Amino acid sequence: MTSLFRISLVALALGAAALVVPAAAQDSAAPQVKMLNVGSNGQATVFEPEIIRVTPGTSTDFIAEDFGHDAVAVEGLIPAGAEAFAGYKNADLSVKFEAQGVYVYECTAHQGAGMVGLVVVGDPKANLDSVIANYRSNPKLSDKAKDKLALLLERVKTGS
Ligand SMILES: [Cu+2]
């Protein structure tokens, strides 16, 4: 069996499984971001997905799949009036997002290597321009984190 064929079979099986999951079970599952040493794309120390989009009032789980990571909101790069969140290293974290807009967050240990992510709650336009205008001058973020944010914010801006 070729690997391509095998992948197709797995995709078929997953597709079939998704069809039989009751809607209620899907609704009760909080959106998840995994904290990983290596992402599925081979990238080291990443949040996966790097951008997660949720509706206001949704709890999102940050899962400490691998050791050594945390998820901490970056001051000045979250919606005005939003509550900053900060998880502990090696611990799962659940955050209920209310204020609309873009939340930039980092892994304290690895933001120097570019381990940052975005949560987009509802309409990103609430603060997207402000985040784009301010992230480069943030004194806390490394150049690698800023370069990663440039890519992620462009994706949010273009809706991709
Ligand atoms: Cu990390």
Write structural notes for this entry.
By secondary structure, the protein is an alpha/beta fold. The chain has four helices and eight strands; from the N terminus they run ααββββββββαα. The strands form two sheets. A four-stranded mixed beta sheet has the order 2-1-4-6, with no helix packed on it. It has a four-stranded mixed beta sheet with strand order 3-8-7-5, covered by helices on one side. A hairpin with a 5-residue loop joins strand 1 and strand 2 (44-48). It is globular and about 35 Å long. Residues 1-28 have low confidence and may be disordered. The site of copper (II) ion (CU) has 7 residues, from loops.
Secondary-structure element order, N to C: HHEEEEEEEEHH
Number of helices: 4
Strand line-up across the major sheet? 2-1-4-6
Note the gap between the termini: 35 Å
Binned strand content: 25-35%
Radius of gyration: 17 Å
Classified in CATH, the superfamily is: Cupredoxins -  blue copper proteins
Structural class: alpha/beta
Mean pLDDT: 87
Largest sheet: 4 strands, mixed
CATH class: Mainly Beta
The outline comes out as: globular
What small molecules does the structure contain? copper (II) ion
**What percentage of residues falls in helices of 4 or more residues?**
25-40%
The total number of structural domains is 1
Q: Could you tell me the number of beta strands?
A: 8
CATH fold name: Immunoglobulin-like
- CATH architecture name: Sandwich
Question: What low-confidence regions span 5 or more consecutive residues with pLDDT below 50?
Answer: 1-28
